[in-house]
Amino acid sequence: MSWLSIIVPTLNEAQHIVPVLTQLQSLRKRGVEVIVADGGSTDGTTELTAPLADRVLTVPPGRARQMNAGAARASGVALLFLHADTRLPDDALYAVDRALNRHRWGRFDVRFDSRRPLLRLVARMMNLRSRLTGIATGDQAIFMTRAAFGSVGGFPEQALMEDIELSRQLRKTGAPACLKLPVVTSARRWEEHGAWRTILLMWRLRWAYWCGANPAQLAQRYNRPARTVRS
Asked: How many domains does the chain have?
C-alpha cells in the first residue's frame, strides 16, 4: 500500500503525457503509486503510459468518471489528481505530506508554461480567487485524504466543473491547504484560442454554473471550436 496515489486522467494525450509521467518516476521510486485513467484514447496514449505507471485503466470517457475510477483502484491513503498537461514541483511529496497533517484536502498554486504577462496575471488571479473562496480547480492539482474523498462521494460525474463542485463539498469538511508552491500547467488552450477570448469564456461559464446552468450544456460551449482570434 502506498501512502499517496497520483491519478492522471487522459484522453488522446500522446503529445504531452510522457514528460509528465517521466517526472513522476522519482516519486514512484519513493513508493508513490501512479495511475493513468484513460477515456479511450485512439492516439497511442495508453501504450506510451504503460511503462511509466503502476496501473493504466481504460474507462468510459469523462474526466470525473475517469478520476473516480482511478481512485477506486488506488491503494494510497491520500489521493492527488493531476491533469495530463500539468507538472508537479520537485518538493510536491513533502508539501502534500505536511499539508495533510493539518488539513483534509488542499491544492497547489498554479502558473502557466508561458512568459506572456497576461497569463502570469491570470495565474495570480486564479490563485488569489482560490484563497479567498476555498474553491480549487483541477489545474491546481487537488489532493486529499482518501477519507475526505469518500466522505463527499468523489467527483460528481458531470460534464464540466466537476472540480468546482468537489471543492464546494470538501470545503464543508474544512478549509483547504493552499500551497504557494506552484504546479506548472500548459497554456496551450489559452494560446490556441486567444488569451482574452478564453478568459471571457471561462468567466461566462463559471457565472452560468453558479446560476444553475446544466454542466453538459456548458461543456458543449467549452469544447466548441473557437474562431482564429488571438489576443
From this structure: 1
